[in-house]
Amino acid sequence: MAEYRYLAKPDPEWVDFPNNLPPGTKIVGMKKDRLPITPQDGLEIYELDVAARDGHPLCLRSYRKTTQDADGPKLPLFIYMHGGGYVTGGLETDDSTCRAIAQRLNVRVLSVEYRLAPEHKFPVGFQDSFDVVRWAASEEGQNKLHVDLQKGFVLGGTSAGANFTSGIAHFARDEDLMPKLTGLVFLAGSFCHPDARPAKYADRILSVDEVTDAPGLTRKSIDYFGALYGAPPFDKRLSSLLFDSHADIAKKAYFAVCGWDPRRDEALLLEQILKEQGTGTKLDVYPGLPHGFWTTCPDLPESKRWLEKLLQGLIFVFDDHA
Q: Active-site residue 239, yes or no?
């Protein structure tokens, strides 16, 4: 959207990445690895497998406070899906964030290891993630996880994970999934293939063409990852902006949007649409910062502020049950 072009003025620390970052800044690359769980005082962290529709075992990593009695009150649930352009990333990508959420809030966090392209092209990653949501909503899933979805059934993710979140939320509404999703979390999300932009929004989704020099993500890399993923541009599982209605996909939604990000405009647009169609929204925008900066440089002060704002966003979507 033209009125948001100013958000793409780069933060000086990120110009000519990584040469202007503070000395000693930790830079984290995206990997597919799954490492042994490192124990942490105060947290119960374990992994479990859930069968996808084709029988493939999907590894889920669960996080919750150890101070919560296993036979005590059931917790609300936050299902999280990592980013990585559908082709990389894994349970380690946002392990520290999942730990922080479980440590600070009274929720169970469930991180999903969905299958990746190009070995597993579209729609496998989307279907894997949706299968986990359906399992969690089932009586078996709720009992296994010891959760109360009436307290909160929240779905979210970063980048590709946020894209899955939007598509799943729309299809879950249309199939009348019960219990219903109560909240959504969109972190640096994408919601429409650049070639499938609805005509009525053509003048409002400009950043994907205009942000060409940001570190981490550009239109060139979007097209590269998209080719590996193999999703048809007009498939609503990829381009959820194509749904006729965006009403009733959840009660509340939280958005974290990066200003120097080609995906900026579609996220700002979806936030406005959801608000207009009755979903309560909370929005945090990071001017001059690139796509998923908090994953790339987690120790920068702005990344730490992002985490604090994320925690406040989660409290918002959980209606203070967290």
A: no
Q: Are 286 and 261 in contact (CB under 8 A)?
A: no
Cis amide linkage into residue 36, ω under 30° from 0: no
The whole-angstrom separation of Cα 10 and Cα 54 is 45
Handedness of CA 143, 146, 150, 153 (dihedral sign): negative
Radius of gyration, alpha carbons of the chain: 18
291 belongs to the catalytic site:
yes
Which two tokens mark 96?
A: 């520290």
Q: Which of 82, 120, 246, 291 is catalytic?
A: 291
Give the pLDDT confidence of 35-73 residue by residue, as tens digits.
999 999 999 999 999 999 999 999 999 999 997 666 778
- Return phi, psi of residue 47, to 5°: -120, 150
**Residue 118, preceding peptide bond in cis (omega within 30° of 0):** yes
- Choose, from 94, 128, 261, 265, the residue flagged as catalytic: 261
Count the residues in the chain: 322
54 labelled catalytic: no
- DSSP string covering 195-206: GG--GGGTTT--
For 34, counting Cβ atoms within 10 Å of its Cβ (0-12 exposed, 13-18 middle, 19+ buried), the class is middle
The DSSP letter of residue 75 is: B
Catalytic-labelled residue, pool 62, 159, 166, 207 = 159
pLDDT digits (tens, 9 = 90+) for 95-122: 999 999 999 999 999 999 999 999 999 9
Contact 278, 250 (CB under 8 A): no
CB atoms within 10 A of CB 209: 12
What type of residue is 47? E
Residue 160 CB contacts under 8 Å (≥ 6 apart), including other chains: 81, 82, 83, 84, 85, 86, 89, 125, 190
Nearest to 114 by CA among 167, 184, 64, 171: 167
Decide: pTM greater than 0.90.
Answer: yes
Which pair of structure tokens corresponds to residue 135?
Answer: 């399992």
